[in-house]
Design a protein that fits this description.
The protein is mainly α. The protein is about 70% helix and about 0% strand. The protein has helices at about 20-45, 50-75, 95-115, 120-145, 150-155. The longest helix has 29 residues, at about 50-75. The protein is elongated. The N and C termini lie far apart (about 50 Å). It binds fe (ii) ion (FE2) (2 copies). One fe (ii) ion (FE2) binds near residues 65 and 134.
């Protein structure tokens, strides 16, 4: 689904001076980096194999986003981005899922904003596509929150 061909910055030289866009892409990279780390932990805490599998699929998308943004950052700046975990991973499944839902939902707007600011069709397409993925992720996390899996102990005591 991703556009894998590389693009040439020389065609978009005005971007080289757009430090604000670069700062935002750096932030997007760190957000993806943090999600990749935290979703690994969240998947381990998932109450069912099905939810764990969904979270690992979402994590795969975040890895693709990370790689695409990393490539864009390198092309714009000629240097590697600094990787920093932007927030600590939550220690419970419920708290982690809630934060994930909010982060995903907020990221949709953040990425569409980056796409709007950029004049580069490759950057626009990459961030628009990522925004659509994040919207999909947000819906999954909301589903996990609103349909909590009943644990086996609770089910047993009802008999
Ligand atoms: Fe992402
Ligand atoms: Fe996401």
């Amino acid at each position: 689904m991703y556009i894998n061909h590389s693009f040439h910055l020389s065609h978009y030289s005005t971007l080289q001076n757009d430090s604000r866009l670069i700062t935002e892409i750096q932030r997007a990279i760190n957000d993806e980096y943090s999600a990749i780390l935290c979703y690994k932990e969240l998947a381990k805490m998932a109450p069912t194999q099905e939810e764990r599998q969904h979270i690992l699929e979402i994590r795969k998308d975040e890895k693709r986003h990370f790689e695409a943004f990393h490539q864009i950052y390198m092309s714009l700046t000629g240097t590697s981005p600094t990787l920093t975990q932007t927030e600590e991973c939550k220690s419970t499944y419920r708290a982690g899922t809630l934060v994930a839902f909010k982060d995903e939902q907020e990221t949709v707007d953040f990425y569409l904003d980056i796409a709007d600011k950029s004049q580069n069709p490759f950057i626009q397409a990459t961030f628009q596509r990522a925004a659509a993925d994040e919207q999909n992720h947000a819906v999954w996390f909301l589903f996990f929150l609103t349909n909590p899996h009943k644990n086996h102990t609770a089910r047993r005591t009802s008999f």
